[in-house]
Design a protein that fits this description.
The protein is an alpha+beta fold. It has one domain. Strands 1-2-4-3-13 form a 5-stranded antiparallel sheet. Strands 11, 12, 14, 15 and 16 form a 5-stranded antiparallel sheet that branches. The protein has a two-stranded antiparallel ribbon with strand order 5-6. Strand 14 and strand 15 form a beta hairpin.
């Protein structure tokens, strides 16, 4: 569905953390695909929930939008940042060497993905804040570390190599049918990925894992908009509050005013400061925030169904989110 230069992405439900991340990834990818224009995104109520509308010169043609998305996403096969290991549990010294190499590549312009690699590594974690075993601390979006043959970065690489235009079309335009094989393609950012026996009609051990491959692939591209940052109490992730296995939550806004990627980056980085500022909320036309708790079940993390509103520990939020002012 299009409206002049806006394409309504009717497949994405803004209350679902995976769909919200996929929306961010769509905005960022289209921004990279169309460097000579300012791509923007807004949200509107449609079919019972908040859906994003992307604004760009191609938006009257959904097929052209998906084609450009696929082209940029295919380029990710050469990203060094996705090949630093299978999981984000590297020794801090090893992760530091990857960071230094990535910065050197940017300075020397040795690869087309150089700057993107730096952005992803900054989102993955830090060599400055370490665990007791001197491994790196990592993003709050990390949901697995190798247990049960589930590998965070390995799944990234699988999604990069196997996601096609049809996966993207079904994710962005159609009602989600969960028709894709989920094993190795499922990053546990969708609340439906929580497959505990008590939450299901059938035994999950014999029930096939299904997912939306395109949503997971697009959501990966959102990570550079949610970087990590060392704080006095540990590593913090943009748009996350609280700490620990039971106290961490993902907190995100819905906005009606079309915003570019750069403005959105500042918005996400300033949530703690603006979420109670009625003037800024009115200026950006933010009607609601959603909160999803990150839970740990056994050796895996999952996200709960979201609720509108919610609170987060103010200290944790301010340390990571008040880094830069909003700008137009």
């Amino acid at each position: 569905m299009s409206d002049k230069n806006g394409l309504l992405l009717t497949g994405l439900d803004g209350s679902n953390p995976l769909a919200f991340l996929a929306a961010l990834g769509t905005l960022r990818t289209l921004t990279l695909a169309l460097p000579d224009e300012t791509v923007k995104m807004s949200w509107e109520e449609y079919d019972g929930t908040w859906r994003p509308r992307v604004w760009c010169s191609l938006a009257e043609d959904a097929g052209a939008v998906i084609k450009h998305l696929e082209r940029v996403l295919d380029d990710a096969s050469g990203r060094a940042s996705f090949s630093i290991g299978d999981n984000l549990n590297l020794p801090a010294s090893e992760f530091r060497s990857y960071l230094l190499k990535a910065v050197e590549n940017v300075e020397m312009m040795t690869t087309p993905n150089a700057l993107v690699d730096v952005e992803f590594l900054a989102a993955f974690g830090s060599e400055v804040v370490t665990n007791d075993d001197r491994t790196m601390q990592d993003t709050a979006l990390r949901t697995m570390s190798g247990a049960g043959h589930q590998h965070f970065l390995k799944f990234f690489r699988e999604l990069v190599s196997t996601t096609d235009a049809d996966h993207l079309r079904r994710t962005l335009i159609l009602r989600w049918d969960y028709a894709d094989e989920g094993r190795g393609m499922n990053l546990r950012w969708d609340p439906l990925d929580d497959r505990r026996y008590g939450l299901r009609w059938e035994d999950p051990s014999s029930n096939p894992v299904r997912t939306m491959r395109g949503a997971n692939r697009l959501a990966i591209e959102a990570l550079p908009l949610l970087p990590t940052m060392p704080t006095k109490s540990g590593l913090a992730t943009t748009a996350f509050g609280g700490k620990g296995a039971r106290g961490t939550s993902f907190f995100w806004p819905i906005w009606r005013k079309p915003l570019s990627m750069d403005v959105l980056r500042s918005l996400l980085a300033s949530i703690a400061r603006i979420r109670n500022d009625n003037v800024i909320l009115a200026q950006l036309e933010i009607p609601v925030f959603y909160t999803s708790a990150r839970i740990t079940t056994g050796k895996f993390r999952n996200f709960t169904p979201s609720a509108p509103g919610g609170t987060a520990d103010s200290g944790s939020w301010r340390q990571v989110t008040e880094r830069r002012p909003l700008h137009d």
